Fold this sequence. Notes:
By secondary structure, the protein is mostly helical.
Amino acid sequence: MGQGLWRVARNQQLQQQGYSGQGYLTREHGRRITTNNVSNTSHRKQAQGGIDIYHLLKTRKSKEQEGFINLEMLPPELSFTILSYLNATDLCLASCVWQDLANDELLWQGLCKSTWGHCSIYNKNPPLGFSFRKLYMQLDEGSLTFNANPDEGVNYFMSKGILDDSPKEIAKFIFCTRTLNWKKLRIYLDERRDVLDDLVTLHNFRNQFLPNALREFFRHIHAPEERGEYLETLITKFSHRFCACNPDLMRELGLSPDAVYVLCYSLILLSIDLTSPHVKNKMSKREFIRNTRRAAQNISEDFVGHLYDNIYLIGHVAA
């Protein structure tokens, strides 16, 4: 009885002081909310040295646009960075909403140079009324024309002042462009050997292993599907260019352009042998070394063995 009365009196005392379980939790919760509000307020004030990003992210035009940020309310640098990730089609669509931002010349200049790395017009004073958006449309139209008819495509670029009538300028354009159809490009280069010569000299094979250099060469200038005079011309030009880029290595290994020519043909034949599913009995490393050294006697056995290992591990040189 005495203990029960003591507990009742004790509970009444705690309630009067505001330290009951529920009151304590309520006070603690209120204290935490107050602390968090003060912290958030101070954090926002610190961020307001330049622009209140928190306020920008929370701003909405209407409930229908909830979760959608208006780029015009962001700093220009941030808006341009976001738009720079768009391709040409999406950027045109974005210009319907943010006309001033999406029509910015720097954005379209970046799209032009990322797709067509070299054009003669880049190094000239722009004509009256020039815009990179218009240039992009012309480059795209010219590329489509080239992929249908290479000669007409090149003439289109020249008529628009995009390319100069020079083999070196055409070669630079081809070297820095990835939108051209490789089959049409092969036909064009077979007819324009002057452009092919300048295109070969644009490659730098310094300190590259021979099979890797040959792969890079055939990535820009695709090999024909059949043997013939054009393939011989390509390998001959590659051999001379490879030797010109690595004179010290050629002296050390005792190689000449003719020896490199033989090695290139051996690598192509080995690539076909090892990768073709129709060849059942694959050439062994010992057979490749013996056959290659029979054709080029001054080449060391270790060097030829490394050539075989490269093809075996990495694959075809002209894939």
